[in-house]
Amino acid sequence: MKKRDIVKSNILFNDIINKGIQARNKYYIISKLESTELKNKYGIAVGKKFGNAVTRNKVKRQIRSIITNNSHLFPKFYNYIIICKKEVLNLKYKDMEIELLKLLNKGDANEK
After folding, report:
1. Are 31 and 20 in contact (CB under 8 A)?
2. What are the pLDDT digits (tens) for 28-65?
3. Which domain holds residue 36?
4. How many independent structural domains does the chain possess?
């Protein structure tokens, strides 16, 4: 995921969470909102209850890697916010990827 693909504005971040379509499971909450831009933008939220900065940054790096490797599965013209829950710490990387992609597909099914 490139830097230009990150949601940087706090206002946009909050708009996506408040006005967007949400899908959730035990590990993640994904909010998505339609965008006028040609590229998808992503935001990742990891709360302070996760632990120290090293732990939070590790989870964010893993989520960014999952997004980069599976960007073709995310529908185009949307902005996404991925909120991680504390249960993510118990998962291995492959399980994190499976759960995130499963939730993404579930969210698309609910929308149609």
Report:
1. yes
2. 999 999 988 888 899 999 989 888 999 999 999 999 99
3. 3-111
4. 1
